[in-house]
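Sanity check

After download, print the first record. It should look like this:
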Amino acid sequence: MATPKSLLPDCGLYRTTKPLPDHEEAVPAGVLVYFHNHSDSGLPVVMVPDHNVHNRWHFHGEGVPFRGLSWADSLTKLSPEGFYVLRKALAFEGGEWPKGAIVQLGYNKSGDPILFIAQVRAALDENDLFFSDRGVGVTREQLALLEPAQVFAEPIPAGGHSSGVH
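Expected structure tokens:
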């Protein structure tokens, strides 16, 4: 019998706090996952990251289905990957980023948050913002400094590759 969707957490990024029973090697404790509270089988599924492009994880495949409602309740919800503005200055070992800076939020495979600051690179001919693939690890408490930024994304051309879940 499938678990009622209304009793499960919302779909999205999470960090595991316990290994998934019967799938401990594939989905151990302390890893980044994408949780779906539904699937074609009617069961919730969890997916581990496949690869990272532009500081965003991509999740592919069918995922691992499970029945344990208590395991789903053990997941820690993570803020969405994407672009934010700093509400106040962010100090970290080796520097500080000013209030109002545009940053990109990403995660490592352990679900620890990483921020990447927007930069204008003078050597480029285009008027693009650049986000390095090397960021600054921050605490979960520091995520309270982030205000979501609205960024327009161009439509993906046919056959192109998008971020997220596939």
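If your output differs, re-run the checksum step. Summary of this record's structure: DSSP finds one helix and 16 strands in the chain.
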